[in-house]
Specification:
By secondary structure, the chain is of the alpha+beta class. The chain has one domain: Aminopeptidase (3-Layer(aba) Sandwich), CATH 3.40.630.30. 28% of the residues lie in helices and 38% in strands. A seven-stranded mixed beta sheet has the order 1-2-3-4-5-7-6, with helices on both faces. It is globular. The protein starts with 13 loop residues before the first strand and ends with a strand.
Length: 158
């Protein structure tokens, strides 16, 4: 009889830089969870521009990502997404925490983002982190019937 010991520790997500070779996996998530997803070109442009682009992996599987632009003492979270089957598991919060910490390390005093009024789950996450509404961008997002406004949220960084 042979006994094999299994490692019972749960897999730990790891965050790393987004690279060009990640874009197929990023696009699979983006296309699956959004009615009007970013294009591969949007992500490639963000990488070329030197934006802070990160991917979250769990046991090798890409499960989430964010794109952060930092300039002139401000940060703008351009995209934060988690694969549908991994949502509501704390991964969005982990990505948001990492994006905020990175923005702070890079000298940003505030973190801004836009969110659809129809995206209640994202709004709840951002509110839990202390984001406050500072404005509205009219007809910002494409929608099935015309355009949808964006709520502009801000978080002071400590």
């Amino acid at each position: 009889m042979s006994a094999v010991l299994k490692d019972e520790r749960p897999a730990v997500p790891s965050l790393g830089p987004m690279r060009g070779q990640d874009l197929a996996e990023v696009m699979a998530i983006e296309d699956a969870i959004y009615s009007h997803p970013w294009t591969r070109g949007n992500f490639a442009d963000s990488l070329r521009a030197g934006y802070e682009c990160r991917v979250l992996r769990l046991s090798g599987e890409l499960i989430g990502y964010f794109v952060l632009m930092v300039a002139a003492g401000e940060a703008h979270l351009l995209n934060l997404s988690v694969a549908a089957r991994h949502q509501r598991s704390g991964h969005g919060a982990a990505l948001l925490r990492e994006a905020g910490a990175l923005a702070h390390r890079l000298g940003a005093r505030s973190l801004f983002l836009e969110v659809r009024p129809s995206n209640r789950a994202a709004q709840a996450l951002y509110t839990r982190f202390g984001f406050r509404r500072v404005g509205v961008r009219r007809a910002y997002y494409p929608a099935h019937a015309g355009r949808e406004d964006a709520l502009v949220l801000a978080l002071p960084l400590q």
